[in-house]
Design goal:
about 100 residues, mainly alpha, Cytochrome Bc1 Complex, Chain D, domain 2, globular, binds heme C
């Protein structure tokens, strides 16, 4: 019983930081500067405003930047942002962008 408790406590401890950072926080920290708080900004004068994209378009773009199969002239910028994020983060971010 004691071991179950220790395991549970450890799991909660390690899961907490991940849970603390919801998609809105991730967006504010990683995306807002270039794309605007409501996704309406045209980043570097060249992107479509994120809030005009469909969920599938955002998902495809983020997955493509991560795998190096999507993007234009400034794709290195997005690759740098997206690479450290997990697939789950990107899914959550895409859903958040879709809700903007
Ligand atoms: C340093 C500025 C910068 C940051 C930070 C940034 N982006 Fe971008 N984003 C760009 C630029 C520039 C492009 C166009 C890149 C290219 O040439 O493909 C772009 C493109 C995109 C596109 C594709 C748009 C289109 O028209 O096809 C999506 C979707 C996107 N970004 C989402 C995000 C998300 C979500 C985040 C946060 C995780 C983020 N971006 C963070 C600058 C940024």
């Amino acid at each position: 019983m004691k071991y179950v408790f220790v395991c549970l406590a450890a799991c909660l401890f390690f899961a907490a930081p991940a849970l603390a950072e919801g998609p809105a926080d991730l967006f504010a920290k990683n995306c807002k500067g270039c794309h605007g708080a409501d996704g309406s900004k045209v980043a570097m004068g060249m992107t479509r405003p994120l809030n005009s994209l469909t969920l599938d378009e955002v998902k495809a773009a983020l997955a493509g930047y991560k795998s190096g199969t999507y993007g234009g002239e400034k794709k290195a910028m997005m690759e740098r942002v997206v690479k450290p994020l997990s697939e789950a983060d990107l899914e959550a971010l895409a859903a958040h962008v879709d809700s903007l």
